Amino acid sequence: MALPPPLRALGIGEFNAPHSLEMYLDYLCPFSNKQLQGVYEHLLPLIFEPSSPYYGKVRIILRPYPQPWHSSAPILAEAALAIARLAEPSGKNAVEETNNLVDPKLNAFWVFSREVMKNQEAYFDGPSRTKNPDQIRGDFVNLAVATLGEQPKREKGKPLVKSHERGMPLGQAVKNLVRVEPEGNAGSAVAPDLKYCVKIGRQNGIHVTPTMIWNGLVEPSISSSYGEKEWKDFLEKHIGGGQK
């Protein structure tokens, strides 16, 4: 499934993989969180381990799909989409950055999305009721800096993502993308990206999260409770070549 250039970071796995798995997730949905953590723990090793029979055979796309009854969900989705924009390859390092998009450990959007999910409970309707939208945006700007800038520097010496403007701090770059002007009704700079995610979900008849799409068709058999065995069985059935 193709992605528009500003959102190529939504996908991991080989660009020419013969199969695709699309995940429609809401960052404030507990079952979306369970689905994403399960994919990280049980599915990704089957796809990214070179010794696996399914290595390189599946491309996975995470599509943010905020549900309207989760009041802060669009704000969290926009924060993640801002990271996707910053992860878009550019300049002299475009080849290296494009290669990084394939790897879930180096794809900044995926790393950040997982961290957002881990922090979701603090932004459920009850706990976040006293925070205004700008305060929530500020929290996730700080989370982006900590997760994608400071922590990778400590561990690997290199941030996972940086501003496209030379010399601009990562936090300011994210803030610029999620900021809403005091006048008008245009939304943030990433509002068009959020609209794209919502429109494609509506076009495909997505109602609940998580919803999984395999090779273009909704696959209701995939559960957020899938473990290693269930994913192995699924891949064996739909791809073949695995070991019993």
Automatic annotation (TrEMBL):
It comes from the Eukaryota. This is Thioredoxin-like fold domain-containing protein. The lineage of its organism: Eukaryota, Fungi, Dikarya, Basidiomycota, Ustilaginomycotina. Gene3D superfamilies: Glutaredoxin (3.40.30.10). InterPro entries: Thioredoxin-like_sf.
